[in-house]
Amino acid sequence: MPHAPDTAPAAPSGTPTYTVAVRTLCAFTARAGDLDLRFTPAPTALEGQEGHALVAARRGAGWQAERPLSGTLGALTVRGRADGWDATRGRLEEIKTHKGRLDDQPANHRALHRAQLRVYGALLCAELGLPEVELALVYVDVASQQETVIIERASAATLQAELEERAGRFAAWAAQEAAHRSARDAALHALAFPHAGFRTGQRELAEAVYRAAVRGRCLLAQAPTGIGKTVGTLFPLLKAMPVQRIDKVFALSAKSAGKGLFLESLAQLQPPGEPGARLRVLELVARDKACEHPDKACHGDSCPLARGFYDRLAAARQAAMALPQMDRDSVRTLALAHGLCPYYLAQELARWADAVVGDYHYWFDVHALLHALTQTEGWRVGVLADEAHNLIDRARGMYSAALSQTALRGLRTVAPAALKGTLSRLQRAWGTLNQALDATDAAPGDWRVLPDLPTRWLSALQQTVADIGAWQADHPTEVEPLLQRFYLDAIGFVRLAETHGPHAMVDLGLEPGSTGARRSTTLTLRNVLPAPYLQPRFAAAHTVTLFSATLQPPAHHLRLLGLPGDTVVMEVPTPFRAEQLQVRVAAGLSTRWKDRAASLPGIVALMADTWRRHPGNHLAFFSSHDYLQQVADAFERAHPDIPVWRQARRMSEPEQAAFLQRFQPEGQGIGFAVLGGAFAEGVDLPGRRLIGAFIATLGLAQVNPVNEALRERLDALLGPGQGHDAVYLHPGIQKVVQAAGRVIRTPDDQGTVVLMDDRYGRRAVQRLLPSWWRIERA
Q: What is the dihedral angle through the alpha carbons of 204, 562, 397, 719, rounded to the nearest 10 degrees?
């Protein structure tokens, strides 16, 4: 795998050399025209690997796979691996897998493939002293396994001239990148901590992150809220970049608030000096938030921002390098000024940024952009994951898939006639599958765990995917949204099914409102243990730091996330004193589901009494919106003089900001919120802005068939009793500690936390609470 881009030791002339992958060089110089993302069937990663293996098996003994090639042109070194070289025939091959008609392949793709092959040809001729070479683009249809081979002969002189032309076009950019890398690394060597000193615990965290980066290890760090974890992890990783030749830092978070903290901290950590030494900081934004024309398709015939995208990309890319920070607003403004799509411009800029801020899925998901680029470009990267207690549930979602029978029924009414047969076969297989809900060895119900993937149904689904793909390949301009949506969901399901194992379970559930003979179900392939999927992601990074205020017990996270055996685990001592926070347990209250109605008078009285003794701003957390509304209604009736404001369902970002705006230093009242929601973590309200919190729940997940099945599966995987803790206890207490952590943010803060449930008196619960808390009975 080529390591690119990178700054190599200085050339004899003193000019730094620059190493670039063949793919990157060609993507930079060979693409032109429109951005065209019209859907065309694409092979899975596994199908691509199988296609390459198929070609290799058909070749003779003298055929060499993955032939490494490199060459230097002035200050530029070009590296890559050609798919195959047959020395006997004198043929160099580039293998590409495809589905459907090859004629429907976008011209941009074919041009890029040919450019890569011809660069490899130039490098090979120079290395072996060949006067000419036979070049073969080998397209393999993964369905028929047939090869389409496009052959041309080219002289070494012609190929070398083309390579020099490409290198010449890339040279100015390469010189700029090499100079930036050199200046950046020098500035990071001299980078000073941005504040007068470290907070208590912050230095220990920073030292651990730096040591992990130097040793190429993973770090699992629990650090209390309020010590400056974001700066405390970014600063040492930036300092390690020049020492460990780290190309990129990926700062990832589960929520928008975490992204904002990363961007603010990176702005504080910008090295002083010349503009060329500044860190290029890029914010990646979800497609639905960045799209300017959601009613248009992503190709030049529909969207004006896709038309001529690659023709205008170079100017926008160059202008982006001069931005102080490539955040969402800056990238959007720049993109629109150049007539480009902001979302896809940001994806292009990810190749050239030093630090990328985004959501977890950009590294950990099955289709992760940053992971794919790292693998392709051979980058050495450092990864930071903030609020890492969220990663288990997020990863389960990334590696789960579901298909709806209702969606299939709707599709059958609008599908083209050629697909009616395959969809009907899938429907019949689904009907047989639904009989599992009435299995004689189980009580009738709405939901069942199946013993394994249903083979007949899966076979029908695989055939349906193949048939839809073939039809779409033959009708590329006929777009049916229901068909495309079902097809993409089905592809996702099939791809996950290829890796199905004990770490996942298959379940069948009746869809809401579905009854009678035409009832519909949803089949879900549900990840239980994300470790098998995440292990390669940890291995692909030079160093990974997962940090949060709530990672107790660490063994829970190590096992479920699949962290390496040599992962460093640390708990940063708290800078806070027990005297700063009064923690009281209302042992006489139960917030269990069956006791909710009876709990209202006691909760209301305790909250009012506490507030009158400590007037100011408080947050009250509840297990659900319904429970929140019940208590808030009762509270307002009993104490109309105490101001109350409530979190609503699906609040927009401006509405969330307005909710937090109520917490002013001289404010008075109680904000009602949902535990685990937008206001329970990642919210900073220091000093008098927040002086107390009420938590009317233990935070446990609802006991339902799904969670009980997860518990049973984890018991089998991890050991008896581990499932209950992993599904219920540990995630619940993490939410509680996160919510309580909103109260004490600085060494000078004072506040109260009232835990309103009798189960807080149990030893098994208290051992998961922060050790510095001094718990009293309310």
A: -110
